[in-house]
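Quick entry, no commentary yet.
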Amino acid sequence: MRIKRELLPAEGSDEFEDAKLAAVKEIAARFVVVGAYKAVIDCSSKESSMIAVSAAQFNELIAPMHCVQYVDDKGAKKVWTPVLARVLEYDAARRTGKLVDEDATGWELQIVDRLDALPGQDVVFVDPDDGSKCRNTWVRPKFDLGYAPEVDRVSLERECEWFFDFLRYLLNDDETAIGFVLKWIAHMIQRPDERCSNVVLLMGVPGNGKSTFGEIVGRLVGLDNYWPMANAQALTERFNGWVSGPILVHVHETYMKGNYALVDSVKSLVSDPKLAVERKGLDRQMARVFARFLLCSNDPNPVSFDLKVGEDGSVEKDRRWFCADTALVKRCSDYFNELQSSIRDDNKLFLLYQWFMTFENAEFRPFASPPETAAKRRLVCRSEHTVVGIIRDGLEDERLCDGARVASTSEVMAWLAKNGYSAFASNESAIASAFRLLKVGTCRPRADNTGGRPRKWNLQEYRDSLDQADSLAAAGHNARQFEDEMF
């Protein structure tokens, strides 16, 4: 936009100096300088904070947006641009007292070593572990008073009935599921600075309120601390700056059926206290992670657990997951319209936040196994590692190890590699676990050269048991047929 020369401030005037300072303060309020001036990050939103720009990129792309037009002593129109070096000069002058800002609001350019999350700390904090200066990627929720106030729990619960009614509907009045979810949310709000290894998976028909539930919890913890994702595949993307800061990560549509690597990556996300975090334009750094994970799916069986069987025959299933089926019958659109009004009512959300803040949650153990549910048992029953199917099929049609009576794990691995299953041939523990899951016994057929007795899988015994089962099934069928004919 062209501005008339007579309206522009003159070089050296108070008006010109004020305009330059205002431009610097705008930048200081929005940007953070990271890593010895190597990069600049826009922290005005959680999305923009995922990308860092170099000093040269800042000077070329961002500084001109905050430029100041003025008239020099010869009457020519000029432009003053707040490049990073000038902004740093202003900040240094402010710190040393050479620049006195008469504006009572004050300002400060944040210059930090890195970005990290530590709930409860200030916007800029000193890392208690290594003494580095960090910009806090966690933001205090607007409903947080900093303490648990004295409240009338009875009247407060009455005010929050809209949420409890929704939860009863969504979780099919399952008291176990409702109780666990309430404790899970309360821990998230009361102790955002603690890790929680539980993953909550909600399954059900489209449009029954699963995502709405995630939005409610996201608003309670603060939208700056809430990271919604379209699908679970985004959990393993290279640039994962989103993982440091959010208290709740909400995946709207989850499908991990047969994707054991993706399921395994969730274990690290919910268990490790620190993760390698990489933002665009910044080197990978270790950062704290406090995120809880809410996964939703319209599929009734969206996850396959990698079942491991111990030598004693016990099946180890992933203990971190809490799985629940949600309402099969959707409520009417008028109900959801009214629910959306409640979600956007800050007064109602404030009261709900205080209910969770004053909720007695001493018994909740964030690293303990969540309650077992019928939905979890169903997923476990339908979980089968691919290698289990390959070995079972190979045993049944006698292709495994070319029909050998016995075989060691290494011989099975060689057979898998030879027959096009090289992706599974190196996973010795998965192969051994598959044999145990199929209840294939072991034997020691002969001594080796060292005098030991190598353990081998008794393939023939398994085949014989299959033949016996087929014979019994045929005999049972014939007996029933005889009874039908006689009586």
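second:
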Amino acid sequence: MNNHCVKSEFGYDFCPNAIFYLSLCIIAPSAIQTKPRFDPKTAAGFERLPQQMQVFVEAALREHSASFSNARLFTEAVIDLAQWGGVTVEEVTEKVNNRANAQDRDWVSFFIDAVEKLKKEDPDYRAREKTPEKKFPGRVVAHEKQNQVYGDCPVASEKTVCCNLKTIDAVTDCALGCNYCAIQTMFSNDNVQVDRNLAEKLRSLTFDPNRFYHVGTGQSSDSLLVGNKFGILDALTEFCHTHKNIFLEFKSKSSNTAWFEETHRKDATALPQNMFFSWSVNPQVFIDAEELHTAPLERRLAAAHKMIALGFKVGFHLHPIVHFAGWQNEYRVLCERLLSEFDAKNIVYVSLGSLTIPRSVRKKIRAGGFQTMVTKNLTAENPEGKLTYPAAIKEELFSTVYGFLKPWHSSVFFYLCMEEAKYWYSVFGDCYASNDDFESAMLEAMRGKIVVSR
């Protein structure tokens, strides 16, 4: 094409290319590239909203101009309100209309700001009228995948103080339905999967006999959830008998200790002493709302007592510690109960950790459409970009709960799980120089509580 300017019949000089593009404006407006509009139907959880709320979102975005980003944030804000319960969309809309004219171009922004303020409020689990409906837990099935069952903790990071935990993935996926758990995004299958060839895979592993190891079984599922289905507890006890230098932790929110009790009744020597058992504990008001299929606190503590009676040591994970209305009193009562019911000599360690949610889990929570307030107050990011509490709240949570357990400070090993060094300094007044030093200190504490003949 000749790109020289030519004289048109209207007396103006045009370049042929300019005439071509001008013709697109006049003849084919649709050919001009326009900014994409956000479709609320693409937002995770939108289709689970009640029909009237879907209509509200679509009508608001038609009536009020909003950028692609703000339209997405507005849709997510409505989804969050629906999941939190309490304050309704109508109440927020009324507040926004009092602040801005209904036709105001900033109406959507005002709505988003109003919900952001609500997000910063503590959830109030005491105000719930009923326990949320429980999600379907799926089935327990066996698999024969050629995967590696032994490896590093899935949340290990150089950006936080890490204990170098190793894990055995005997079971993958979990049926306990904790609303905040990252396991729900780790696996694509809705069923709980047990490794049918676990014993064979464990027999193939080799370890340095001159050192100790801390190995967990509760990072890809709950350690006690499925009992001895497909022989996994047989395989794990054989593994412990073979490797006396491994401290194998069964971490749980279940109370399913029946297999261990029955095995011990038949033969007390059948269970190796280098196993120990730990429970995640939280106030019952939080368990009822956010840990849907788990054992109540009462049964978790009863299970811990049973394992101590069989001669085993136990641990407790106050993780996540959650900032909700009345949290100080709830955790004080919980800690007082631990102190009164358990002897420090039987406690391997106590871990403290905060609520930390990867963005993939946040999206999964919205997509689930279930009632939850677990995402409230998570207005900061940790070094890995995960949603968490602001630093001031985290320091208050850790320091307060650690203080409640003061009688155990000199006789029980305490640590922060997956937290930055700055919190160690503010809570404990010190921090390990390296993750290897942390691991060594933890193993030394285990050796002081768990007596194993090698």
